[in-house]
Amino acid sequence: MTNMKVVNHAPQRGSSSNANSAEPGVGDSPKRSYRMTARAQATRATWEAILDVARVAFEHQPFDRVTLNDVATQSGVTVQTVIRRFGSKEQLFEAVARREGARIKAARAVPEDADLETALNALLDHYEEDGDVILHLIAQEHHWAQVGEVVREGRQVHREWVKRHCRHVLTGAGGQERERRIHAAIAATDLSTWKLLRRDLGLERGEVATIMIKLLNGIEEES
Asked: For a 10 Å CB count at each end of the chain, is N or C smaller?
């Protein structure tokens, strides 16, 4: 707690009271508030810098090769600082995953009444930016519990995307047939399909979108 200076308000002999004297601490309040705000902003910036470094590490290295020492060094802080804020490598990974998950969710978001082409373009934007990183995580999902959990959550997010934006494929279907169409639509628009078309076959993005729409329309025609 900051020590407050005690001010004697009794008039001193041979001097008069100063009419401009301020109440104790009143003049310091805005400065103290500014310092606290600046400190909080600096702390926040440090945490974000650590997350940025950790994100790059987890994106380009296997989970077991990432170390808190390396993250701390590249962030310009001590390893104790990283541990104090995030606890462990697993918790640091989870913090990165939460932040990136929120970013991806916002990037994929389109209005509820958006047509399929608009929704698919947003999905492909996401694949173009994050697809290779997600494939890197998928390759590790059976080796590390934290990575596997993130991958499973991603699959659930995509399932919900299909149910929301591929309604024309699901219309009129119920029970097992509806589930079959959901799985078909997932396969038509999944990251693995994007990889096959975009990375393995080297197709242009626009051609990938066209093929995915044809696959979805084929489900509807078959139904």
From this structure: N
The Cα–Cα gap between 33 and 30 comes to: 5
Contact predicate 28/34, CB 8 Å:
no
What is 31-95's CATH superfamily?
Tetracycline Repressor, domain 2 (1.10.357.10)
| 57 vs 160: CA distance, rounded Å | 29
* 3-7, 82-86, 102-106, 124-128: least confident range: 3-7
| Environment class of 191 (CB within 10 Å of its CB; exposed 0-12, middle 13-18, buried 19+) | buried
Domain ranges of the chain: 31-95, 109-223
**Phi, psi for residue 105 in degrees, rounded to 5:** -60, -40
What are the start-end ranges of the H helices in the chain?
A: 29-60, 68-75, 79-86, 89-108, 116-138, 145-165, 167-170, 175-189, 191-194, 205-222
Residue 75, amino acid: S
